Amino acid sequence: MSETPLGAFLRARRARLVPSEVGLVAGGRRRTPGLRREEVAARAGISPDYYARLEQGRQRVPTGPVLDGIADALHLADAERAYLHRLAGRRHPRTPAAAREALPASTLALLDTLDAAPAFVTGPTFDLLAWNRPAALLMAEPARRPPHERNLLWQVFCCPHGSRSADNHAPDRSIGADLVASLRAHHVDRPADRALAELVGRFSAASPAFAALWSQHRAGPPGPGRLHVRHPALDAEVLEYTVLALPEPGRYVFACLAPPGSRARAAFAAAPPARATAAHRTGDLPDPSPGRP
Q: What is the pTM of this model?
């Protein structure tokens, strides 16, 4: 039986739940991790057979209340609940109309004001749309690199001195996990987008870490966190970063802050002053189909 995106998501989220976390007693040996199908069905108020058909792709589109019951049973966050509804076809896919529009001048001006903190803007698939001078130093001059490398996913998963999570013991809360979860949420709105599917395939082939995170079926927006930076001019530094969602769908501002007195803070402050660089002032996105990520 062929796997459906909805079934894969339900199985992945069910496998991640520990019975004790939802008030259940483990009750003997379990063949697989997580909750049993009948346990999810009972908590959602539906029959085990109905839930099994959903996971197996044999059930037509469930109603909104049924999906909400399943979301409650699986302890889904708001973003994952919305993702579940979209997977099940309860909402029409959103077309990212602003994806190819030029960045507003006010956004570039915001980057200019952060002259001692790396800050950059990303699009729905985390292409770098604009960055300030400290960010250019942090990311090894993206303007000089080929288009497929001007991407935050490439920076995190493929760049030799790119960002690494500072919370390796908690990969679900790493910047990489957040980026992949956001990409998956974007992916469900564009199931027929071949370029997006190829992008996921290339990163999955190039990075085992990306592939492992993609298989977890997390969905949600990126949030703040901490990361290690391995950079020839900065040594190893831990940077705090925050994320701001822009009005245009799928666009975010990432801003990083180095610790006071650190070598990175001094390097960013000493970077030659320059206007923020917009990679796509005409609104064109990078070539989505390079040879590899």
A: 0.69
